[in-house]
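Protocol step 4 of 5: obtain the predicted structure for the target chain.
Materials: sequence only (see below). No template structures provided, no constraints applied. The aim of this step is simply to have a reference model before the mutagenesis design in step 5. Sequence pasted as it appears in the construct record:
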Amino acid sequence: MLRSNLMIAVLAGVAMAAAVGAGFAQTPAAKTLTITDASFGCIRDLKPVRGYFVGNLLGDTDATVKVASSGSGVYPPGSVVQLVPGEAMVKHAAGYNAATKDWEFFELNVTPTGTKIGKRGAADIVNQFGGNCFSCHAKAEAKYDMICEQGHGCDPIPVTPVLAKAIQNTDPRCPKVDNLPADQQEALKQLAAFRAAAAARAAAPAAPAAPATPANPQ
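Step 4 output (structure tokens):
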């Protein structure tokens, strides 16, 4: 009888251990977010939402689209948000950076052959128009999770909806869009002029310092 009871106890212990082990095995492991040049492609391959594009590098695209479409809420880790091909913001897991609500900002160099990450970081990334990404997005109301749209509280940017659409339609990584609308063509001309003027200012030699004014004799 003692041996029988001992055997029953051993078998019960094995069964419990197996059940616990099975329970642990069913718990999905946290996905690791690795961001490289290959993480970014044709902007129009992402999901369009009210003039910008979203996706998810961890495969949770439906959850990202749900938040974007609702207009407010916290984006899930892996979310990618892009207005133009040369800039992106990616959501990390909680704990990455409390100040940016776990968003990382990217400056991207895009060509017909692909994407190169120019700069990446939290609070020190400056966009092609000279604005600090974090400083702008930080002004969005809390319920928008640092996403800037009209009425969200962010400062205006020099990118009109027409210009944004024109830049999206001319992403060099995407199939060419034939017969670009006239208003988009005009917007691109204005953008080219803006960039040329900015480049000229950057290349101009610094003005010589004014000579010191001699002190009045006593």
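Step 4 remarks: Helices lie at 2-25, 61-70, 133-137, 161-169, 182-203. The beta strands are 47-49, 52-56, 79-82, 87-91, 103-111, 114-121.
Proceed to step 5.
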